[in-house]
């Protein structure tokens, strides 16, 4: 079922074809009925024109049937229809007598040429119309009741229609070009804004990550800070169903206050950073290394029993003792190891590790002691 033509269709190839089909459907229907009516009216007065009208009425209905059956051939059908109507209108124009409105047929066919086949076909049709009408009037090939003034008026009408359609087509092309350029500019601006927004979001995410890292990291050693570790411990408490508990190693740099007092805080910071780096390097990937405060450091070892934690602490103690710090000489640490018991809080675990650390210092430092089971 063909729908009525819309006033402002979108300018796409598919839509153009669709609206040409609708346009021709309406033209063939109207032309067929009009030609049939005119053939009945003219038959008695002018049998020749009556036959011409009847012939073209049949042709219009045949083209209408072809259009519905083969609508994909709309361009070919439009060309055939255009030239057939052109022949019919010229025949009526030259042969018919006493019909002062028949010149309007030429204007209609010219408008249809511009609409269906574009400006090139319209220009050609206009040239043919003017040359045939003026040539017939001068040579007298067909009888004509038109005066010189009638021919001059018709010529002006045809030229006026040409300029109107030409200006309309030019305006539409200019507007289409402007809209395409405007659309391209808008797309470029949208793309630019999208890229800027994506860059701003990426920078914001990076800044957010940096802030998160800064808020969770000790700025001197690069280890996790105390607040971050306490937060993680509270958010992810160890499961009581585990077969292996977590372990905590509390480390204290031996004679660190003496190093600061003797060599200054610059060397003290260097020693602290070297010890922290050694801890990170030789601990396991899933261990959490923390600067607890001052020269106290922590290694939290998930799913590690007491023996394994003591072995880890001893390995790190030996590597720290081998650190090449010429200004202060060998650096040593003392470590206390404790294992998390069911129901333990972080403070209870740290308290037991601190007691083991105290024993290591009392025993002469540079050693690892394990806390007694609770």
UniProtKB/TrEMBL annotation:
SMART domains: GGDEF. The chain crosses the membrane at residues 21-42, 48-67, 74-94, 123-143, 149-168. It catalyses: 2 GTP = 3',3'-c-di-GMP + 2 diphosphate. The keyword Kinase does not apply. This is diguanylate cyclase. Keywords: Membrane, Transmembrane, Transmembrane helix. It comes from Methylophilus luteus. Its EC number is 2.7.7.65. InterPro entries: Diguanylate_Cyclase, GGDEF_dom, Nucleotide_cyclase, Rev_trsase/Diguanyl_cyclase. Residues 244-373 form the GGDEF domain. Pfam families: GGDEF. The lineage of its organism: Bacteria, Pseudomonadati, Pseudomonadota, Betaproteobacteria, Nitrosomonadales. It is an enzyme of class 2 (transferase).
